[in-house]
Write a structure and sequence with these properties.
Layout lengths: L1 E3 L5 E3 L6 H8 L1 H6 E6 L2 E3 L12 E4 L6 H22 L4 E2 L4 E2 L2 E7 L8 H15 L4 E5 L1 H10 L3 H9 L4 E6 L2 E4 L13 E11 L8 E10 L2 H17 L1 H7 L3 E2 L9 E2 L1 H20 L3 E2 L5 E3 H7 L1 H5 L5 E4 L2 E5 L4 H8 L4 E2 L5 E5 L2 E3 L15 E11 L4 H18 L4 E6 L9 H17 L4 E4 L9 E7 L5 E10 L2 H4 L4 E2 L5 E2 L2 E10 H11 L13 E5 L5 H10 L5 E3 L6 H10 L4 E5 L8 E5 L4 E4 L1 H10 L1
Parallel strand pairs: 16-21, 20-28, 24-25, 31-32, 31-33
Antiparallel strand pairs: 1-2, 3-4, 3-5, 6-8, 7-8, 8-13, 9-10, 10-11, 12-13, 14-15, 17-19, 18-19, 21-23, 22-23, 23-30, 24-26, 26-27, 27-30, 28-29, 33-34, 34-35
Helix pairs in contact: 3-4, 5-6, 8-16, 13-14
This protein binds zinc ion (2 copies).
């Protein structure tokens, strides 16, 4: 038989040859380093037979960054973890242990609960196994054999897995540990150069809260110690920037189970919120938007008309109302459609740009909520533009320029993605050809580079999504610009054309911050809490050195009344109060003591630089921030 290699050359092999045989036929070095066979995007164990004509790629220990190569390495490390736990904690039952993004886990039922401190001991045991060396052996057995083996071992979870398994059953053994597993696995443990157990958590068997609670041990592994070090460093940076942690430290907001996924905004968080709202309102006004306000609850019939009922009803909160049912809006569109349709429109009224920063509710599954980044209470900087076909391009330009202006203000660089007709689209292919073409044209004519997500558009039209990559290289979706020919027709919207005939307008849906909640979460992480001066909840803090200086400190704060100024007159040492201002990342701190006056102020900038400035110089300096 023959297999096809990545360079399209063919390799002749005896029938029944395995991936490892193929590697040997190419060269002994490759065979030694081989970790995995990849074939048409899926991964296969080296020990499995290949098929005639199969296209294969053999991954090796040199593919240290390849996700599939890391996947097999981490899966094998999960088995080492289970071996170590069974040795250290006799009587522990093992459940499942898959690789996941960035690592692996294994779920256990311990006879006695273990704490975080146990992780070091277990990690040492894994390192001992690695020093001894392990090799994996794969065998296929009948369900009956597998069942008997795990029943004898007292591994009831494995027995249940055997009973519910479909397809052939394989066992992998390393050392004295055998696991029920589909694989694939490494040949041996030599490529595992760095292991770290990263945490403990509770997890229910099969994810069902009616089942036994198990202990999940998380870990990660790499082909190179330096890769682990870099990963831990990134993790540490992400932790330091985590908006959920900074949100508490900076006293911006909190989340509580009283209102799942719906933030409570504290006064300092509201300063940021309102600064963004002011920005939104000011810039909308400049660009010819008009502000509107539409209801939060609509009869279900309205959602049927808009098309949301079919595609979105599981994500809507519903409220009974007499013998009717109302839905809490997950989007503003239907309200704006009804508003547009409430009077006779002429082409002279277009483009008509409705803006609304209203509260939307989306019923998200509990496990998917994440701080401010995924909430059930969404406040969009939403707008809908009603336009004639001739106005589409110019209007899209306006949105793109607006987006560029906003993101630039925050030092964010947006990436553009064009999403085209999805499987569940409304409307005809001809309509989609037109709307997709209009968006492509606008992007091309503005010279904007973009990627295309085929089939990822909204059900009513194609869209341009705006993503940003943060300082840690993580990508976040922010704004969206969507062109719609469906919803206006479903609401029977009309305008009188120049030709005195009725026409259906197009609608552009657009949000640039996306949701304010998420945008603030992104901003907290983007700036690591050190907001630019204009956005900082407290811009200036005055610290009177002694009790005698309090009155003068307040007087100074009064003179800087156009800024957000606080006086910290707590009975704490000056050093402590300076440190607290640093923790709160306050941009400007002024110390006021015996030597200070309007002619000579001790000014500390965020970052620690200190200088002496007169009040006039301070004002000049503040104006540059
Ligand atoms: Zn496994
Ligand atoms: Zn909309």
């Amino acid at each position: 038989m023959k297999v096809v290699l990545p360079d399209n050359s063919e390799l002749e092999l005896p029938n029944g040859a395995t991936g490892l045989d193929a590697a040997r036929a190419i060269g002994p070095k490759l065979a030694e380093q081989a970790v995995l066979v990849r074939s048409n995007g899926s991964v296969h164990d080296l020990r499995l037979p290949l098929e005639d004509g199969q296209e294969i790629q053999i991954l090796t220990t040199r593919d240290t960054q390849d996700p599939d190569a890391l996947y097999v390495l981490r899966h094998s490390t999960a088995h080492l973890l289970a071996e170590a736990v069974r040795r250290l904690y006799p009587g522990t039952k093992i459940a499942i242990g898959p690789p996941i993004e960035n690592g692996f886990y294994y779920d256990f039922e311990f006879p006695e609960p273990i704490g975080e401190e146990a992780l070091n001991r277990i990690e040492d045991e894994i390192n001992r196994e690695l020093a001894e060396g392990r090799a994996w052996n794969r065998e296929e057995v009948s369900a009956e054999e597998a069942r008997r083996y795990f029943a004898e071992q007292g591994e009831e979870y494995k027995v249940e897995l055997v009973d519910t398994a479909d397809g052939p059953i394989s066992l992998y053994t390393q050392g004295d540990f055998t696991d029920l597993c589909r694989g694939p696995h490494l040949q041996d443990s030599k490529p595992i150069k760095a292991v770290k157990l990263t945490g403990l958590a509770g997890a229910y068997w099969r994810g069902d809260e009616h089942n036994t609670q198990l202990t999940r041990i998380y870990g990660t592994a790499f082909y190179d110690q330096a890769d682990l070090d870099a990963y831990l460093e990134r993790l540490e940076q992400a932790r330091a920037r985590d908006h959920r942690r900074l949100g508490v430290q900076l006293d911006l907001f909190h989340l509580s189970d009283h209102a799942p996924g719906m933030p409570f905004w504290h006064p300092k968080g509201m300063v940021i919120w309102n600064a963004l709202e002011d920005l939104r309102r000011r810039e909308n006004l400049k660009r010819g938007y008009v502000e509107v306000k539409t209801p939060l609850l609509y009869d279900v019939a309205t959602w049927v008309t808009s098309g949301h009922w079919d595609k979105f009803k599981d994500e809507m909160f519903l409220v009974p109302y007499g013998d009717r049912e109302l839905g809490l809006k997950p989007m503003n569109c239907p309200g704006h459609m009804l508003l547009f349709g409430s009077s006779l429109r002429s082409y002279r009224d277009l483009p008509l740009r409705y803006a609304e920063s209203s509260t939307l509710h989306r019923n998200e599954r509990a496990g998917t909520l994440h701080g401010l980044l995924r909430v059930q209470h969404v406040t969009q900087d939403d707008a809908h533009m009603f336009v004639t076909p001739e106005q589409i391009e110019e209007e899209i330009f306006g949105c793109l320029d607006f987006a560029a202006y906003l993101y630039d203000l925050f030092g964010m660089e947006a990436r553009f993605e064009l999403s085209t007709r999805p499987d569940n689209k409304l409307g005809t292919d001809e309509e989609w050809d037109f709307t997709e073409g209009a968006l492509r044209n606008a992007l091309d004519r503005r010279g904007i580079e973009y990627t295309v997500n085929e089939g990822d558009g909204a059900f009513y039209g194609p869209k341009i999504d705006l993503h940003m990559t943060d300082v840690l290289g993580r990508s976040w979706q922010m704004g969206t610009i969507q062109l719609d020919s469906q919803m206006p027709a479903r609401f029977e919207l009309k305008y009188m054309g120049e030709d005195n005939a009725e026409h259906t307008p197009y609608v552009i849906h657009r949000a640039l911050f996306g949701s304010l909640e998420r945008f603030i979460g992104i901003l907290v992480e983007h700036y690591a809490g050190a907001f630019p001066f204009w956005l900082a909840p407290v811009q200036i803090r005055v610290i009177p050195i002694g009790e005698a200086h309090r009155a003068a400190a307040h007087e100074l704060a009064g003179k800087l009344g156009e800024y957000r100024v606080e006086v910290d007159e707590r009975n704490e040492t000056v050093g402590r109060r300076i440190r607290d201002a640093e923790v709160e990342k306050i941009p400007v701190v002024i110390l006021f003591g015996e030597k200070e006056s309007d002619e000579s102020l001790a000014v500390r900038e965020r970052g620690g630089e200190q200088s002496t400035k007169s009040l006039a110089e301070l004002r000049e300096y503040l104006a540059t921030l």
